[in-house]
Amino acid sequence: MVRKIVSIVVVALIALVGGAYMLPQLLHIERSTVIARPAASVFPHVNSLRKCNEWSPWADYDPNVKMSYSGAEEGPGAKMSWTGNDKVGTGSQEITQSVLNRKVASDLRFGSQAPAKAALTLTTTDAGTKVVWSLDIDLGNNPIARYVGTTLDAKVGADYERGLAKLKALVEKTAAGEAPAQPASEPATSPKAATS
Q1: Domain-by-domain residue ranges, the chain?
Q2: Strands of the chain, DSSP E
């Protein structure tokens, strides 16, 4: 009887592990909003990690989180590290690419895991600026990570939606005196917003 139970448990474990490798290794999460302001009004709020905290969806999870900043003030090389409760954890974010009024890309690190790739992409539309916030994660060969990955789109996606709503409210309020966005010509890149 014991041998039969052990056999059932072993088969179940093999099935669970095998099932994990049927799940995607690469995970892409994406949410978007349209802000009724030009990209030039949005860009400063996404190109500075200090300013990102003004609309971060995670700011309310731990009022006592410890933040530190290093490197550049904005754009590539700007780095932020944090240590907080179990809701925000410990990690760091570094801007790796910045294209003026177009895109800001970052590496996110959590412990010893490989960095996740985050990006905020701005596109001018008739209604203003479309902001797409995306995250790409390589879940590796860890079967537990593969299963956890099936829940991340809903969880992280909800946080992204809250953050984009806060960004939209912040930009539209602080830039209320500006004219609606107009189709822009090819933007130049500055030293603080250069293509990597």
Answers
A1: 25-174
A2: 26-35, 66-70, 79-83, 90-99, 103-109, 116-125, 128-138
Token couple for 71:
């490197």
Nearest to 192 by CA among 97, 114, 106, 112: 97
The closest alpha carbon to 166, from 86, 76, 62, 52, belongs to 52
3-state helix, strand, coil in the chain (%, to 5): 30, 30, 40
DSSP 181: P
pTM over 0.85: no
CA pair distance 140, 91, nearest whole angstrom: 19
Collapse the DSSP code of 89 into the 3-class scheme (helix H, G, I; strand E, B; otherwise coil) and give the result: coil
Class in CATH terms, 25-174: alpha beta
What are the distances in angstroms from CA 31 to CA 94, 126, 161, 162, 187?
A: 21, 19, 6, 10, 24
Summarize pLDDT for 86-130 with one digit per residue, the tens: 888 899 999 999 999 999 999 999 876 768 999 999 999 999 999
